[in-house]
Amino acid sequence: MTFVLATDFSAEAQRAGVIAGGMAERVGEGLHVVHVSTDPRAPFVLGTTEEHLLQDERKALAEAAAALRTNTKIPVEEELCAAPIVDAILGAAERVVATAIVVGGRRRIGPTLGRNVHERLVQQSRVPVLIVRAPQAFEAWLRGERPLRVLVGSDMGAASTRALRFAGDVFARVGPAHIMVACVAAPDETSIRLGLPLPPDGDLLAPAAEAVLRDELAAQIQRACVPVTNVIVRTGTAAPETHLSVLAENERADLLIVGMRKHSWIEKVWAGSVSQGVVRAASTNIACVPRSLVEDKPVVPGPARVVVAATDLSPLGDAAVPLAYRFVADGGEVHLVHVVDAGPFVHRGTRTRDAELVTRLGERIPPEARTKNVRTESRVLFGRAADELVTYVERVGADAICVGTHGRAGLGAVLLGSVSQEVIARSRCPVIVAPVPRE
């Protein structure tokens, strides 16, 4: 494995290179320096006898690599690529099996590494991306002058667990690090997810809800096996990236780390990506950790301890409920989930039916739940159904999700409803589809 440094030969890139080299040396890895030429002739002359046309860039790249070799005792390789910039950087990272991509923190938009490139790297990369915006913090840390203050944003899902592991596997290995975990919770949404009464003040998180969130964060930290110095639960109704950016500043964090999930096109239109929003908003150093290539590989599931049953409370949707209890192991738990499509903007007044819907979900619990000693959780979620279901399955660590079918004879006899199809396409755990009852 190795660190990939993307450089445009700027002063910011040079400082980022020294930091990348220092980190790679501490963990015993190499450094791969990549420069992407924006010369329109580059795609045609690289690797040919006409490559001398790019000799100025080749010389600058060689000098940058030589300077890094002088400062470190690790192998430093160099690679000159042709545009497009993001594709070239990601291709180099894939070829060398990179631990992370490191880029300087220049915020301007231009033909070299800039804010637009950073956002596209974060969106497309399959390895973590470290954006160095405050190099002095890393430099002091590498000199042993003080610990690195790291803030990891968490939504209790698998993506943020990977971000937390990355903080421990890389930064805690390099040098002393104070790792903090922060969760931004909207009061109403949190109470509904946990099945608790809505707080009287919509701007404050109920004490019972905060206690549950802290328990969930403690469980996540235990799963990640990372020592954490502080756990922060922040109430907020604005975009999570806004709260995380402000929180990073208030906590004097040297580095803000967030996980990334795959987003549907409509989620990007309405809400965008937290990681991309952090890249735009945060002024400190940023690391964005994508889905793990290893964890994404399919595995053979064992006994299902946690099963999610999604129903729209119709007869076809309800068929998923007994199926979930049939597949869950004795002593396991089933989460009965119903999603209210409230559109992109959910208002407090739309949630008055919550208690009634929870009651209706409870009416669907079959008798075998008691004989198998299965615990049942009923949840009403608000938002786009497929997005909410995929996120919820990831958050609770479900071993499987059961969904129903919806026939649509007028549209080419499609067997599966659009929600079921999207859940199948996006879910990282097995999806069990209840068959249409025979007439």
Q: How would you characterize this protein structure?
A:
By secondary structure, this protein is an alpha/beta fold. Helix 5 (115-124) packs antiparallel against helix 12 (274-281) and helix 10 (240-250) packs across helix 12. It is elongated. The chain has 18 helices and 15 strands. The protein folds into three domains: 2-132, Rossmann fold (3-Layer(aba) Sandwich), CATH 3.40.50; 135-289, 3-Layer(aba) Sandwich (Rossmann fold); 304-433, HUPs (Rossmann fold, 3-Layer(aba) Sandwich), CATH 3.40.50.620. The strands form two sheets. The chain has a ten-stranded mixed β-sheet, sandwiched between helices. The chain has a five-stranded parallel β-sheet with strand order 13-12-11-14-15, sandwiched between helices. Helix 1 links the parallel strand 1 (2-6) and strand 2 (30-37). The chain is 41% helix and 22% strand.
At the first level of CATH, the class of the largest domain is Alpha Beta
CATH architectural name of the largest domain: 3-Layer(aba) Sandwich
Which strand order spans the largest sheet, edge to edge or round the barrel? 3-2-1-4-5-10-9-6-7-8
Could you say which structural class the secondary elements and strand pairing correspond to? Answer: alpha/beta
Average pLDDT metric: 84
Computed Rg: 24 Å
Low-confidence stretches: 107-112, 263-272, 293-300, 344-350, 407-416
Q: Kindly state the number of beta strands.
A: 15
CATH fold-level topology of the largest domain: Rossmann fold
Report strand %: 15-25%
Give the biggest sheet.
Answer: 10 strands, mixed
Secondary structure: helix percent: 40-55%
Total helices: the number is: 18
